[in-house]
Structure formats: C-alpha cells, structure tokens
Design a protein that fits this description.
By secondary structure, the chain is mostly beta strands. The chain folds into two domains: 109 residues, Jelly Rolls, CATH 2.60.120; 63 residues, Jelly Rolls, CATH 2.60.120.10. A hairpin with a 2-residue loop joins strand 14 and strand 15. It is built from no helices and 17 strands. The strands form three sheets. Strands 1, 12, 13, 14, 15, 16 and 17 form a seven-stranded antiparallel beta sheet that branches. A six-stranded antiparallel beta sheet has the order 2-3-4-11-6-9, with no helix packed on it. The protein has a four-stranded antiparallel beta sheet with strand order 5-10-7-8, with no helix packed on it. 0% of the residues lie in helices and 58% in strands.
C-alpha cells in the first residue's frame, strides 16, 4: 500500500478566470496542467465570479462537487442545478457556465481510463480498486487499514494498492471518496 497526503495549506494557488485553484495532486508527477499531459488531477478551487466559464479540456472527464453552496450551471446551453455535496459529472470539452460562487472539489481523468466510482458521505468500505482518493470537506480522522490519518479541511489522501491487497477505510464524518 502506498499513501500520499496532500495538504492544501502547503500549496500556492493558481489563478483561473473565475477564482483560485489549488492543485493537490497531478499524475504523473512530471505532468503539467497547462500541457494537458496528465492522467488524472485532483484540485480544489474557488469560484469567485458569477457567471464564470469553466476551462475546457479535450480528452478528459471531470467530476465536481460544490463544498459550501449549491451549483447552478448551464451545460452546452441547458440549465442544470446540483445540491451542495452532490456529484456533477461532465465531459471537459463541454461548455460550462457557472452562476454560483463557492468552493469546489474537482477530479479530472483522461478519457480511456476506467471511470471512477465516487461516494460522498461517511465511509466504511474495503477498497477493491487499484487507486483511490479521500478528500476532506471538513477536518476529519480517517482510518486506513487500522492507521489513523488526520486531514484538515480540503486535504486529500491518495491511496495506491497492490492487486491482492485488502484496504479497509473507515471515517464517521462526510468525505469524498473516489476509486478507479
């Protein structure tokens, strides 16, 4: 098992046209967001301008969760509404206009990779996929195969496992858990 902890407070924000973004993790580590040569990317961002247009990325799928507000968007000209802490999935080449402000969680993965499964809420599960993430929408303690990890708000764990390895995850408070 390989676990990496990414702390939001240790990351300098990048600027996008609607706010700030904190890149928690990009894979491979040598990849660059601007070069669009990554396999997956985990970030959290502020949406400070309304309306704001999301950056388009051909060849990626995106998974977004608003952490502190509902999400009101227009996808390719059609209005949609998502409640706080619910998953919004979209093709990164879609035209997305947000009419909401707030903080979000964002996961991008290159098309052709296995589609991730996401769970939002308390977590008591065995991880069967080779890769997983746990994102903390608030300060949490999560147990990974019996070892406790303290995560501050907007921190993230990236968990990699061997084929036959059994990893047990337990957290009594809400998390965003994704695996692929």
């Amino acid at each position: 098992m390989n676990i990496k902890c990414f702390r939001k407070k240790a990351i300098q924000p990048g600027i996008w046209q609607g706010g700030q973004t904190y890149e928690l993790c990009i894979s491979p580590e040598t990849a660059n967001y601007r070069d669009k040569d990554f396999e997956f990317r985990i970030s959290t961002a502020t949406i400070e301008v309304s309306p704001s247009v999301f950056t388009k990325f051909s060849g990626y799928n995106r998974y977004l969760v608003m952490l502190d507000n509902d999400l009101s968007i227009e996808r390719n000209g059609k209005r949609e509404q998502y409640e706080r802490m619910s998953l919004f999935t979209f093709d990164s080449s879609d035209t997305i206009v947000s009419f909401s402000t707030g903080q979000d969680f964002n996961f991008m993965i290159r098309k052709g990779w296995a589609a991730p499964a996401f769970h939002i809420g308390p977590l008591h599960t065995s991880m069967s996929h080779l890769q997983g993430l746990v994102f903390a929408p608030e300060r949490i303690t999560i147990e990974v195969s019996g070892k406790a990890y303290e995560l501050d708000q907007y921190d993230c764990l990236l968990i990699g496992k061997d084929d036959q390895e059994a990893i047990q995850l337990n957290c009594s408070t809400d998390v965003i858990f994704g695996c692929w």
